[in-house]
Specification:
The complex is a heterodimer of chains A (535) and B (168). Chain A is α/β, with parallel strands linked by helices. Chain A is built from 16 helices and 20 strands. Chain B has a single domain (2-162), classed as P-loop containing nucleotide triphosphate hydrolases (Rossmann fold, 3-Layer(aba) Sandwich), CATH 3.40.50.300. Chain B has helices at 16-25, 67-72, 88-105, 127-134, 151-167, and strands spanning 2-9, 38-47, 50-59, 78-84, 109-115, 140-142. Chain B has 168 residues and is α/β, with parallel strands linked by helices.
């Protein structure tokens, strides 16, 4: 193979450096002549060569130094791309060599190795750019998530605050309505009795709306706490169905219940709430003389509970959205009766317990709402579980009770309810209670957790520092009904917690007596405990 | 004909090659083509009575400006610093590049392209941020190689700067 064949094979042009800044095209292939207007034997000034191959303007500076060292070897340029005479893009490289006294430049086109290198670099950069894009997206998601969390916290704070503000007056409305209807302030005539009953119904409704809103916000915030246990479906549901029977009778609707003996794994309160919501919903939409049936069937480890009614039915298009918040089928406005949250809450509570809920209905043919629960034990053992449920008795011995409550109507209501044989002393502020309670040494302290001069937790801490009050049971009574508040109070050392408005009066009395019995015996107080004293 | 060497500088993926293609060929390719080594292109311009060739050196957007790259700056009449508005890191890179280029070239004509304004809803770098750093040193152009926004104006502004230096 002669030297020309080698040059052809390598696709190289040879340009020799001459003294005086001239270059001569020593060996140039026809292809190079066409593409770069080089002619064999032609002499070019350095500036002309640099104009043809711009990269040489920087490379030749290094080449000058290399050649001046007169050492054998080769200096290679970086690969560059430029346009040829036909404006086609091409990739080139140059090598400077010293052959004896001859200084030559070899110009060549970059081949497949260049393409491979570029591909590798391309892949790396594509990957890096994608990674950077992902990082940016991730940062955006994080920012949005932080914003959402902040908004959620604000919403929770708002709900907690609203809950407190609404429950405090409701406590008085419900409590005094009870007192009036019981004739504690004197006998009422039938018209007065009716008016009081309207007040009570409206207040109950308002309370249930507040509870619904709070419930849903708890569930949506993932703060709903379940206490799932093995329980008798029949026993749990009869408790709630007994309450609903009254409402059904009032509306002249027949409520039929046919439940099998079976145990389910569920949260008792939440199960009752689901059925309460479904039956309440059926009661709203079933006409007089209608029928509501509550049935259940166990199958394959699941128990399916169904609430069927003879109401007007639900069109197909409304059957899915009916479980959404504030949706009422067939209603032109969002809300017609109730909060519009009952079915949404039921759905969330069923799903929280691992079940599913659905509706089957057609206009004019009534509706069947069904949900599933996990079955717990074989049939037949339900009786034992039901027998294990012990209801506390109400009433009993006299207790010395201290009440710390700043809201006058709430205080007045408690004073009216905690009548002899119980002995009550009440205080309007934390500081008054702190001053007097060590001397009084009550059996039980009822503590409102929002006092004007100090919060309940601070008062509790300071009471506990008094040796005589260290073991005195404290019952928190608070309108703070948001999830987590109860646990926070219990962790801080209260012995029991009741949320306002107080609806289970008997339970409060039972708790007072139970805790009073647990209190260690203390020396009798220096002064007597009058039957009712205002602090 | 008079020639002016202009270097395109900036981190990889900021759109240096795309700006050159837009300026020279009036086209834009959505696909990213990484540059290996140096890409040299030319466009003849006329400003007033002066006709000249801009020789555009599109340098690979290496993570570090290596010695080889710095040697390519030799003889440049000006440079364009390119920043990707979507990537804050490319602004930091531009600051570093300017320091190094100043050491090699001294004061020469320069402009900054805050590129990819066609997707400025995704920007992490605002013109104000760029101007705060660079406005005292060079004109800042908000550009898009994709739509061609302000590309011609930017090259023209740089060319005028380089001609001004010639006449000084």
């Amino acid at each position: 193979m002669d030297s020309l064949e080698i040059l052809v094979a390598l696709d190289l042009a040879v340009v020799e450096s001459l003294p005086g800044g001239w270059f001569q095209c020593a060996s140039v292939l026809p292809k190079w002549c066409e593409r770069f207007e080089l002619a064999a034997g032609a002499k070019l000034r350095r500036s002309q060569l640099e104009q043809l191959f711009p990269l040489l303007s920087s490379f030749l500076h290094e080449v000058d130094e290399f050649w001046s060292q007169s050492e054998p070897g080769c200096l290679e340029s970086e690969i560059w791309s430029q346009r040829d005479a036909q404006q086609a893009e091409c990739s080139l490289h140059a090598s400077a060599v010293l052959v004896g006294a001859q200084r030559c430049l070899l110009l060549g086109t970059a081949g497949t190795s260049y393409d491979r290198q570029r591909m590798v670099l391309q892949r790396i950069r594509d990957r890096n750019l994608a990674y950077e894009r992902l990082e940016r997206e991730f940062e955006k998601v994080e920012v949005r998530s932080r914003e959402a969390q902040k908004l959620n916290e604000l919403k929770s704070d708002f709900l907690a605050s609203m809950s407190h503000e609404l429950r405090t007056p409701l406590n008085s409305i419900l409590g005094f309505s009870d007192l009036l209807s019981q004739g504690r302030a004197g006998a009422l005539n039938p018209r007065q009795q009716e008016f009081v009953s309207h007040v009570k119904i409206a207040a109950d409704h308002l309370l249930s709306l507040i509870n619904d809103v709070l419930d849903l916000s708890r569930i949506e915030a993932g703060r709903a706490e379940l206490q799932q246990e093995r329980l008798s479906l029949k026993e749990a549901l009869y408790e709630v169905l007994a309450e609903l029977q009254v409402a059904a009778t009032r509306k002249d609707i027949q409520l039929e219940v046919a439940l099998p003996d079976c145990l389910v794994f569920a949260d008792r309160l939440r199960l009752k709430q689901i059925v309460y919501n479904l039956v309440s919903n059926a009661l709203k939409f079933t006409p007089k003389k209608g029928r509501i049936a509550v049935t259940a069937a166990a199958n394959d480890g699941k128990v399916c509970v169904t609430v069927a009614d003879t109401g007007k039915g639900i069109p197909l298009k409304d059957q899915k959205p009916i479980f959404e918040k504030y949706y009422q089928a067939g209603s032109p406005t969002p809300i017609r009766q109730g909060s519009g949250l009952g079915l949404a809450i039921a759905k969330q509570l069923v799903e929280l317990q691992g079940g599913t809920i659905w509706v089957e209905s057609a206009p004019g043919q009534g509706s069947r709402f069904s949900f599933t629960l996990c079955e717990s034990l074989p049939q037949g053992q339900a009786g034992e579980a039901a027998a294990a449920v012990v209801r506390p008795k109400v009433g009993g011995e006299s207790c010395h009770i201290a009440l710390v409550e700043d809201d006058p109507p709430s205080r007045l209501f408690m004073e009216a309810m905690l009548v002899p044989p119980h002995v009550l002393r009440s205080y309007e502020s934390g500081s008054e209670a702190l001053e007097d309670l060590p001397r009084l040494a009550p059996d039980v302290i009822l503590l409102d957790m929002s006092l004007p001069d100090m919060n309940g937790l601070e008062l509790l801490r300071r009471l506990r520092m008094q040796s005589v009050l260290r073991d005195t049971p404290v019952i928190a009574v608070s309108a703070h009904a948001m999830a987590g508040m109860k646990e926070e109070f219990l962790r801080a050392g209260v012995d029991a917690y009741f949320s306002k408005p107080l609806t289970d009066w008997a339970e409060l009395l039972t708790t007072i007596q139970r805790l009073a019995k647990l209190k260690k015996p203390e020396p009798p107080p220096a002064s007597g405990f009058p039957s009712l004293v205002r602090g | 004909m008079l020639q002016k060497k202009i270097c395109m500088l900036g981190a990889y993926g900021v759109g240096k090659t795309s700006l050159v293609r837009r300026f020279v060929e009036s086209i834009f390719d959505e696909k990213y083509h990484t540059t290996l080594g140096v890409k040299i292109d030319k466009r003849v311009m006329e400003i007033g009575d002066t006709r000249f060739t801009l020789v555009l050196w599109d340098l690979a957007g290496d993570d570090e400006v290596e010695q080889a790259n710095l040697s390519h700056l030799r003889g440049a009449s000006g440079y364009i610093l390119v920043v990707d508005g979507c990537r804050k890191s490319t602004l930091d890179r531009a600051v570093l590049l300017k320091q190094r280029v100043d050491q090699v070239l001294g004061p020469v004509a320069a402009v900054l392209a805050l590129n990819k304004c066609d997707i400025n809803d995704q920007w992490a770098v605002t013109p104000a941020m760029v101007e705060e750093i660079f406005a005292h040193h060079m004109p800042v152009f908000v550009t898009s190689a994709k739509t061609g926004h302000a590309v011609e104006e930017m090259f023209q502004a740089l060319a005028i700067q380089t001609l001004g230096e010639t006449t000084r």
